[in-house]
Amino acid sequence: STDGHHLVVQKFLDQHNHEHTKETFSLLPRQRRLDEPAKEITKQMLKMKANKKLVQTELLKNSKVTLKDLHNLASHGRSADSLEEAITYLKNKDNGVVELITTEDNVFQGLFYQDEEMRHTYKSFPEMIFVDSIYKVTTRGMGLYIFAVENSNGETEIVAFCLCASEEKPVIKAMVQIFKKYNPSWFSTKTIMTDKDLVERNVFKEEFTSSNLLICLFHVLRTFRRE
Q1: What 8-state DSSP symbol labels residue 184?
Q2: How far apart are CA 143 and CA 164, in angstroms?
Q3: Residue 222 neighbours by CB distance under 10 Å
Q4: For the chain, what is the largest distance between any 2 Cα atoms, rounded to a whole number of angstroms?
Q5: Which end of the chain is more exposed for a tag (fewer CB within 10 A), N or C?
Q6: Long-range pairs for 8-11 at CB < 8 Å and ≥24 separation?
Q7: Which of 40-44, 108-112, 138-142, 177-181 is least confident?
Q8: How many CA atoms lie within 13 A of 91 on its CB side?
Q9: Integer CA distances (angstroms), 184 to 97, 110, 119, 123, 202, in order
Q10: Alpha-carbon torsion, ordered 194, 120, 180, 90, to 10 deg
């Protein structure tokens, strides 16, 4: 608009701007779905390590199923077993602390991990915590939060991990509270450096009331470049 506060529609096209055929329609995810009998047979074949390409060739007689569809079908249902295996492994590794974050309905939201050496390192250098997050580190798009400190040699030492299925405040808050629970030296932390995520920063501000909150220079400069 002339005042610069609104968007104005200048042109409207009421026709498809892409190929619109029966063939492309059949490739849509909803159209590629297998019926229940075919799905169960396919699951059993994949469970027995059948060649996915050969399975796809057979299914293509009646469906447009893709190799990615077969991969997703093979992966379906593994998450619970994989999570239990991961928890067992981490608990038995270096006297590790493992704690799950779940909803009231017991839906998985996060996994916190810290071994004995990490706890000792944080206890030795608690003055400043660096918190960084790496997004989509798993096939389910989970984020990995990393807690780190700087040792007496000026080197970065990781002191905790948390894998989160959500970036919502209750999950981040639970993560920080678990960290405090196993690290009584948290009250000695004077400074916390994070990225620009407001939810994350607000949680640390609430949980570490006597600490100063800084923002990472790298993230600031990257934001300016993007803007």
Answers
A1: G
A2: 5
A3: 13
A4: 66
A5: C
A6: none
A7: 138-142
A8: 10
A9: 14, 22, 10, 8, 21
A10: 90
Q: Residue 161's Cα: distance from chain center in Å?
A: 12
How is the chain split among helix, strand and coil, in percent rounded to 5? 45, 20, 35
Token look-up 């807690």 returns 147
The β-bridge partners of 101 are 110
Distant-in-sequence, close-in-space partners of 116: CB < 8 Å, separation ≥ 6: 94, 95, 96
**What residue type is assigned to position 209 of the chain?**
T
Cβ neighbourhood burial of 136 (10 Å; 0-12, 13-18, 19+):
exposed
CA distance 113 to 181: 12
Q: At what angle do helices 52-59 and 67-75 cross, to 10 degrees?
A: 110
Quick check: 163 and 136 in contact, CB under 8 A? no
User: Taking the mean position of all CA atoms in its chain, how far away is CA 51?
Assistant: 30
Q: What is the pLDDT of residues 18-66, one digit of tens each?
A: 777 777 776 676 667 777 777 777 777 766 666 777 776 767 667 777 7
Compute CA 4 distance to the chain's CA centroid, rounded to the nearest angstrom: 38
How many residues belong to the chain? 227
18's tokens: 């892409």
**Cβ burial, residue 167 (10 Å; 0-12/13-18/19+):** middle
- Give the side-chain half-sphere CA count within 13 A for 56: 14
